[in-house]
């Protein structure tokens, strides 16, 4: 290719962002150039595939055409990238995927927190607060997203095995606030004794949930018997704000900063020819072996009133 | 000399054509009551109305635009963009605003103005340049959504001035204000399109624009008015939705437009212009709202929900076709 | 006498077509002024300029010596002139009442009182003796009823100047008489009128002076009185033209088209008809006689409730146009805009659809052969067009009708059914079209001519007269006008 | 009396109306080359063509349907559903199939058959019942997507028989097979709509269905054919896309239909029927493909991409309007 090669350790890194319509991903997108500066990687201008795997393929092909020597991407559809990964493997271009684990095709490293663990953590928290009985609602994302499915399945599985006394209503919201509000409102009308809510995405579900609870007069402190326990998922500043106010009770912090940092870290390492082995790392995480590569499982802490002011949480670092 | 002495039965039936979906609504009410005891409670039905209030304003706008023989897809983007830009003009930069800091009381007028401006720009391209309304408003849908994503950089706007939350979240005389507002606007629409010259002009333009022009109707001016009114209603829908949800997400309104068309058309509004009523469109909204509510209540698996939902649209369409008696376009 | 309306040196171009080339007209206060000319001479174009629908490229329009209002000021135009346009301005989805009072249903800003509006509409329809329900949807009316509604609307404005562009092309005898009575009384009230028609006898009957356009130019303006008929025709056509002489012939023995025991609810009942090769059968009848419905059944546009249609010896599936055409039928439908042509497609393509399969093999259509065939049809029927590639939508009304005719004739049909074949067609074209029917018959075809026009019926070997859905009389050649009209009106049994 | 002598200039111009977007394409090529050195390489342009191959088949299908005066939104769902169902009929239950286990060689014919069946069902509702094509195919879009999500439970199918992967991933004579296939089908479409009786019938039907019927064209039969062909082409597009991506995701095809319409209309196909050519539609696809490629290469921020993208659609629309000379509908 006719691209000029920049400085740094061995070539340019191409990066594709998966979507631009959620707070979590937007934080990630913001961290990327910052981390690139810190890690001194030669990063190409990012592309954005807007949650469309066909666009992802086009974008990556273009990046490779422009001389990318390593690719960082976050395929929201983990199956449909198999061919792309094959092509990249043929061209000896290492791939780091963020947030999702491709079903097929070689990857150098998967950087993600365990989405099943999110669901389990939320279940454990709600189950404990409710004392193992009552009704809870989970506001799902889109059913076609692997992360949404992982959270949902793990949540349901944990409820079934550990808290069989709890009834779960699952509402597919397609990541839409409007659907979330309507479905929650309807469900609360039908079952006024609902005591817990698990939201798959704080960015889109938080405000509609609070607004719905407020209208019903259910937005009361945890000390009040009418209180509904709410667990969110993402770790954006607004969630922390609500935890501090007592409007919601917990959230699972997806490490947007660590995603960006370690994605670039491993991409750079790949270009430098480094290799990794399964086992604990120096950054509180574990690398596990996958059939098609390795996965670094980053920590995803549950944030409650107790640790909400922890400065190390990425949500407390955004201004 | 001829056979036309008595008003033929078909003509009398025409009056009831607006109401072809009423039996469907009745069936849905009965089926819903049967499937879930919560369904027929005042609380649940109020919820249904409140949930449909915002989208119903889009249906009102689209019905008028369709009757005038045009098309507007971009309404769905206006639902998010108009209030978002208005809010960003008001809130401080630290909360995600532009840092211009206009007074908070201006946020509603600003949002409506932005909606009107989007409508006017659509009208300008479609009327002045005679471009295809479908593609112009499709492009505007994409562009306007970009104008929501770009300045917010994809973030949800959480810190909103109270004024914009008020309408969508307050209660007047025991009913959410949004229901009153939508009800009043529909009443005005039903009345205006049936009893005002300007309203009738929409039918004339949609039915045969040349004939309307020959009859002295200022076709272009009326069409501009309809697009501007449409944009304004979409902005108002956005304000109500913002109040209901308490924040402006990045995909507020996204994906609504298909439902809007479905509601209008099963309610008897023709995609070819000149035909249909606002009352019919309202029954279309209600059918869709009730179907969604019932599907939520009985908890159909999310994967199969679209199939049932689509099938019900088809059935409603058939009923509206059979009762309406005429081919649809 | 001063001029009420005047247009001077008007030029109007449509792309390469010059529709008006420095033409003008001057209409004196209170007169009924005829404008005549061949199809495409520019008459309707002048109408659209005189009513402010289109701007002229050059030239000026004066009303009572004052310059015409700005194009945007529709209200001012409507005070000065009311018009029955050649193209329908009826809005099908609205009721007759609303169409009559379009954009004046109520005072500006006031709410509409529908009951009062219907009453006003009924009154208006009664005044003009238009027998339609004010509440009916205009789209449900027949072509003829729609035309009557348009006329009633134009006359009801109280404008001092009224333009009627071929109002009678779709009316039957009594309706024309009623229209003329109305026009006379308007004239007595001092209303000025411009009247366009291809029926020159109407011009002589109702008008005081006449202007002739030819090839987009003004040719002559003269009082009607003392303007000999053949001179008028010569002014229009630019050459001496004899009136059409129908030809004599003896029909053959084979029956090429027959309908047996045909009934269609509300339209006609228990009709038998048979047409022999080499025979022209006329089908006449005044409004609602059912003749058009019957003809449409014969060609397959409608399905009869009972009875059979046989074309060339083979029973045709009811309501199946392609089957009828396959059996050797060609036809001209009643409403050319509705069923006659595809406006965006070219003259050549519209004219050759029925023979597309013959213009190439394996489903292929050779554009060259199509163009050649179309060129021949354009010459045969004298169609005024830029060429075979011009879209039919751009042609003048009469020329579009010729294209529809060309389509009917293109496959050398053995049966020809033509409904109102000469509606809106100029004198010379009318001769060409009637000649085409007779040519086809001389080649051995049988023809059905559905019309109220006595001129059209004169070429028929016999005329079946229908009344209220039944065939009441079978008149052989040699009838007198009076006799035929009497049967049609049901005056004589 | 007539002007048959010289072919008048307007007619000659009309021939070039299909090509109004060619200057736009040239400008895009020049601008692209200027902005990024990779752009004009054979590799990149091949990528553009391959990336557009599948969607271009949808544009081909939609252009024919639009020319015939109808509408099909559901094509985008067929892109995912037809190959997915076909695959599930073939693969074992353990890999997400139905466990019926038909032979793997059948998967392509099956997918095409499913596409044809969806088209036929659309045609049935629209032609037989005279329902609004827009809403019928909108409902079918929703339902068919449900038929992808339901059986797969939202999971991606990635254990595919090799036969279905072949077409979308192989290379013939140095170019991806998908490009050859799309090229051949476009050539057939251009030829067929210009020179075949059946092709011309589409124009007649779209221009005036009653007149077409009166001219002896079997309107209903032709329309059925167009819908079936449309569904089949969409299924083929799905097969190519499946081969390109190596798996069938739950969103395959979702969101394409707007781009399909945009491509067809800026390429000169009228939404009102009877107007436009396949060659024009092809230029529309190329414009959209090049714009997407350039935006990707220069790395415009994802937030603002839609704005630029939509604006370019508007500009292309204006150029097509000005060069085409007639109002669009
Ligand atoms: N909108 C248009 N576009 C292109 N050409 C047009 C248009 N309107 C009229 N013409 C052309 O202008 C010429 C004059 O047409 P016009 O309709 O005025 O004729 P006319 O005298 O009314 O004929 P007829 O007796 O058949 O109604 C014709 O050649 C016609 O083809
Ligand atoms: N589309 C229609 N819908 C309902 N009734 C119709 C329709 N067309 C015609 N009719 C009615 O059917 C009867 C016969 O009509 P038909 O057109 O066959 O008679 P006609 O002799 O052609 O009359 P005219 O001379 O008025 O055209 C009339 O009463 C007419 O009003
Ligand atoms: Mg004329
Ligand atoms: Mg008739």
UniProtKB/TrEMBL annotation, chains B, D:
Coiled coil: none annotated. Keywords: Cell membrane, Membrane, Transmembrane, Transmembrane helix. The keyword Cell membrane applies. The chain crosses the membrane at residues 21-40, 52-69, 81-100, 106-126, 133-151, 171-196, 222-240, 252-271, 278-300, 306-324. InterPro entries: ABC_transp_permease. The keyword Metal-binding does not apply. It is a multi-pass membrane protein. It is found in: Cell membrane. Pfam families: BPD_transp_2 (PF02653). PANTHER family: ABC TRANSPORTER PERMEASE PROTEIN YPHD-RELATED-RELATED, RIBOSE IMPORT PERMEASE PROTEIN RBSC. This is ABC transporter permease. It comes from Nonomuraea helvata.
From TrEMBL, chain C:
It comes from the Bacteria. The keyword Cytoplasm does not apply. InterPro entries: AAA+_ATPase (IPR003593), ABC_carbohydrate_import_ATPase (IPR050107), ABC_transporter-like_ATP-bd (IPR003439), ABC_transporter-like_CS (IPR017871), P-loop_NTPase (IPR027417). It holds the Pfam family ABC_tran. Residues 5-240, 250-493 form the ABC transporter domain. PANTHER family: CARBOHYDRATE TRANSPORT ATP-BINDING PROTEIN MG119-RELATED, GALACTOFURANOSE TRANSPORTER ATP-BINDING PROTEIN YTFR. This is Sugar ABC transporter ATP-binding protein. It comes from Nonomuraea helvata.
């Amino acid at each position: 290719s006719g691209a000029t090669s920049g400085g740094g350790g061995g070539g340019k890194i191409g990066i594709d962002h998966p979507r631009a319509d959620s707070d979590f991903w937007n934080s990630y997108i913001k961290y990327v150039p910052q981390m690139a500066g810190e890690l001194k990687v030669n990063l190409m201008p990012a592309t954005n595939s807007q949650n469309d795997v066909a666009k992802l393929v086009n974008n990556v092909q273009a990046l490779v055409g422009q001389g990318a020597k390593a690719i960082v991407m976050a395929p929201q559809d983990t199956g449909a990238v198999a061919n792309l990964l094959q092509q990249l493997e043929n061209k000896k271009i290492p791939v780091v995927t963020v947030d999702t684990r491709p079903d097929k095709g070689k990857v150098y490293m998967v950087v993600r927190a365990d989405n099943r663990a999110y669901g389990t953590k939320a279940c454990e928290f709600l189950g404990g607060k409710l004392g193992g009985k009552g009704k809870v609602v989970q506001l799902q994302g889109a059913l076609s997203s692997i992360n949404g499915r992982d959270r949902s399945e793990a949540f349901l599985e944990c409820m079934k095995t550990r808290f069989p006394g709890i009834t779960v209503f699952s509402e597919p919201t397609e990541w839409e606030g409007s659907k979330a509000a309507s479905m929650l409102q309807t469900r609360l009308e039908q079952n006024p004794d609902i005591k817990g809510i698990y939201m798959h995405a704080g960015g889109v579900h938080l405000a509609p949930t609070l607004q719905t609870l407020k209208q019903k007069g259910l937005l009361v402190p945890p000390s009040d018997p009418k209180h509904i326990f709410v667990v969110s998922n993402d770790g954006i500043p607004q969630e922390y704000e609500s935890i501090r106010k007592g409007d919601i009770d917990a959230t699972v912090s997806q490490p947007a900063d660590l995603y960006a940092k370690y994605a670039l870290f491993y991409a750079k390492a790949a270009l430098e020819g480094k290799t990794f082995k399964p086992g604990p790392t120096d950054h509180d995480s574990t690398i596990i072996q996958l059939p098609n590569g390795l996965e670094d499982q980053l920590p995803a802490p549950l944030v409650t009133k107790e640790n909400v002011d922890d400065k190390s949480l990425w949500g407390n670092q955004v201004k | 000399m001829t056979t036309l002495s008595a008003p033929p039965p078909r003509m009398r039936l025409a009056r009831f054509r607006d109401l072809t979906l009423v039996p469907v609504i009745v069936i849905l009410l009965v089926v819903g009551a049967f499937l879930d005891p919560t369904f027929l409670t005042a609380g649940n039905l109020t919820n249904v109305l409140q949930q449909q209030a915002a989208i119903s304003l889009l249906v009102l706008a689209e019905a008028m635009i369709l009757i005038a023989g045009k098309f507007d897809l971009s309404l769905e983007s206006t639902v998010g963009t108009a209030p978002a830009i208005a809010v960003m003009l008001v809130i401080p930069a630290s909360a995600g605003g532009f840092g211009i800091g206009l007074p908070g009381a201006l946020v509603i007028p600003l949002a409506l103005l932005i909606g009107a401006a989007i409508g006017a720009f659509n009208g300008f391209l479609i009327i002045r340049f005679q471009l295809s309304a479908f593609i112009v408003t499709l492009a505007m849908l994409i562009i306007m959504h970009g104008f929501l994503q770009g300045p917010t950089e994809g973030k949800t706007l959480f810190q909103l001035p109270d004024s914009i939350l008020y309408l969508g979240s307050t209660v007047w005389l025991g009913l959410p204000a949004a229901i009153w507002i939508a009800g009043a606007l529909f009443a005005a629409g039903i009345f205006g399109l049936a009893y005002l010259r300007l309203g009738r002009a929409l039918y004339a333009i949609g039915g045969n624009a040349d004939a309307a022009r020959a009859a002295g109707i200022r076709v272009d001016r009326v069409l501009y008015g309809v697009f501007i009114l449409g944009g304004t209603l979409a902005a108002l829908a956005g304000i109500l939705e913002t109040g209901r949800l308490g924040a402006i997400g990045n995909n507020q309104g996204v994906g609504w437009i298909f439902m809007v068309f479905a509601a209008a058309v099963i309610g008897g509004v023709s995609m070819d212009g000149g035909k249909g009523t606002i009352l019919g469109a309202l029954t279309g909204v209600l059918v869709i709202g009730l179907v969604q509510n019932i599907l939520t209540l009985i908890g159909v698996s999310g994967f199969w929900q679209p199939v049932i939902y689509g099938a019900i649209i088809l059935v409603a369409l058939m009923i509206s076709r059979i009762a309406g008696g005429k081919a649809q376009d | 006498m001063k001029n009420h309306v005047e247009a001077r040196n008007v030029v109007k171009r449509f792309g390469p077509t010059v529709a008006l080339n420095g033409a003008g007209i001057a209409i004196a206060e209170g007169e009924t002024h005829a404008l005549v000319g061949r199809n495409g001479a520019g008459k309707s174009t002048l109408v659209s300029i005189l009513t402010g629908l289109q701007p002229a490229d050059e030239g000026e329009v004066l009303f009572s010596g004052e310059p015409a209002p700005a194009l945007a000021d529709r209200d001012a135009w409507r005070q000065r002139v009311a018009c029955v346009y050649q193209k329908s301005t009826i809005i099908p989805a609205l009721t007759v009442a609303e169409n009559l009072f379009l954009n004046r249903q109520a005072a500006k800003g006031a709410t509409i009182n529908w009951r009062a509006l219907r009453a006003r509409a009924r009154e208006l329809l009664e005044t003009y003796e238009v027998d339609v329900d004010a509440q009916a949807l205009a789209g449900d009316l027949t072509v003829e009823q729609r035309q009557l509604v348009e006329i009633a609307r134009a006359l009801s404005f109280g404008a001092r100047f009224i333009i009627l562009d071929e109002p009678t092309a779709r009316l039957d005898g009594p309706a024309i008489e009623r229209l003329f009575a109305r026009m006379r009384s308007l004239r007595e009230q001092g209303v000025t009128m411009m009247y366009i028609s291809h029926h020159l006898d109407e011009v002589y009957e109702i008008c005081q002076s006449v202007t002739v356009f030819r090839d987009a130019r003004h040719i002559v303006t003269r009082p009607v009185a003392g303007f000999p008929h053949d001179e008028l025709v010569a002014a229009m056509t630019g050459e001496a033209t004899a009136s059409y002489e129908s030809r004599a012939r003896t029909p053959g023995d084979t029956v090429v088209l027959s309908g047996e025991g045909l009934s269609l609810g509300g339209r006609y009942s228990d009709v038998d008809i048979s047409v022999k090769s080499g025979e022209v059968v006329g089908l006449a009848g005044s409004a609602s006689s059912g003749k058009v419905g019957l003809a449409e059944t014969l060609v397959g546009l409608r399905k009869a409730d009972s009875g059979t249609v046989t074309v060339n010896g083979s029973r045709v599936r009811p309501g199946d146009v392609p089957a009828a055409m396959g059996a050797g039928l060609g036809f001209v439908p009643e409403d050319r805009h509705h069923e006659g042509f595809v406006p965006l497609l070219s003259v050549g393509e519209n004219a050759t659809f029925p023979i597309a399969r013959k213009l190439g093999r394996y489903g292929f259509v050779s554009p060259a052969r199509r163009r050649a065939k179309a060129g021949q049809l354009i010459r045969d029927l004298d169609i005024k067009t830029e060429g075979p590639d011009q879209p039919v939508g751009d042609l003048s009304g009469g020329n579009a009708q010729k294209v529809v005719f060309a389509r009917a004739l293109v496959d050398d049909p053995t049966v020809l059914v033509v409904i109102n074949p000469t509606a809106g067609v100029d004198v010379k074209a009318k001769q060409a079209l009637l000649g085409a029917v007779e040519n086809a018959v001389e080649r051995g075809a049988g023809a059905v001519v559905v019309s109220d026009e006595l001129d059209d019926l004169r070429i028929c070997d016999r005329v079946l007269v229908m009344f209220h859905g039944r065939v009441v009389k079978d008149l052989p050649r040699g009838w007198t006008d009076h006799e035929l009209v009497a049967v049609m009106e049901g005056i004589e049994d």
